[in-house]
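Troubleshooting: if your tokenizer reports a length mismatch, compare your output against this known-good record of 488 residues.
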Amino acid sequence: MLADFKTLLKHSLIYGAGVALGKAVGFVMVPVYTRCLNPSEYGTLEMLSRSGELVALVSALGFVSALPRFYFDYATPRDQHRVVSTGLLFTLGSALAVAAVLMPLGRWLSVVILGTPEGALLCRLLLVSVVFDMGTLIPLTYLRIQQRSGLYTVANLCRLAAAVGLNIYLIAVLRMGVAGAIWSMLAVAVGVALVLSGWTLRRTGVGFDLGMAKAMLRYGLPLIPASLCLLTIQASDRFFLRGLTSLSEVGIYALGYKFAMMLGVLVTGPLMLIWTTYIFEIAKRPQAPAIYARALTYYALAAVAFALPLCLFGRELLALVATPHYLAAYRVIPLVALGFGFLGCASVMEVGIYLRRRTGVRLGNMATAAAANLGLNWLLVPRLGGMGAAWAAMGALGLLAVLTYVTCRRLYPVPYELGRLARLAAVTAGAWLAYSQGAVALPGGAQVAAKLAILAAVPVALYAVGFFLPSERAALGRLGRRKAEVGA
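Known-good structure output:
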């Protein structure tokens, strides 16, 4: 079991670097965005970005999820290469078809997304960008399947460098505003797609198998509604805020959301990139249920270790990178981060859905959570603005975690370590109460010291309440002795 988690950790760390680099442009550019774009303009960029995600999701037709499943169903490299090539050509074709339908509707899309027809050109540029993004999704999935995590990271590093350079030039130097960000997005998508698609097709050959395409489509299509439901949970709040408050409120909320999303980008996302393919390999072993159970415990521990400092020091982090106009964004970070933690737990617990090929169960869970999210947004956003949207996101994702636990246990029973998880939750809640009921009232320097003390107390408290198993305590002891020897 230890070897399995070492493999997961190794590839998660490398993928973590790759994912972080692939999405880091949004974080690296925060100081530029917040100084060159006012909250309303940042809200406009956020609305366009989220709408692009929706178009990309529909265009992909579930092929990104289907590719690993069908790749491992074939034993010969020739057939595996045909799966990859078919997936790449099909997704490119579907994206072109979607863009061809929507391109003449640019003014209408602008009204729906931004509330004004003046953004029609930006919407059309976004559609072209989505088409080229399809040329990167399958190649990157192919790298994951082959566990080429190093090359995956290099590809994302190049994409990050190009995106940051173009964004700075177009937004900060040429002062093109939101248009500069969209033109940069398009240029990077074109360049990366040409390189990765060309590399992939040189390895696999250019081939298309209609039978494979139909089978992958049958597998992937039922996943689209579930993914749309998840996107509803993660993006509908912007549309509620835009319609019921203002684009400025969208911009401030989006910045806080982006910081909370770091949990998903740096912890959950990297793990899922290896987990969603590795579970099939683990399933062949007699100890598989125990491995799946331990994975949830370790994920929850990693999520707390990352999210708690982020929540405690969210205001200070925002003050470093953003102008005072955006500082109120820190208030939504704890709720949204908790929601992303629930989403990660749900993702780890979906083992039964994939092993039993019961994707309809996932759709039911997602649809229920999405309906709850829409209802909560409708109730809370008019009253609480961005905080209402944060409560809605956290509540819906918490419901999703509960539903996933209940339904997936019926498909594939896993003996999750509920006692350990309860201890972790209790210690984390105690740490947050110590901050919110005491440390938050202290002056600047004293408050920072109190937050650091709270963080230092968490592992001690976990040790005291018996969270760590004897084998883990022994490993921690060996690690401490090794560090002492190195220090000596």
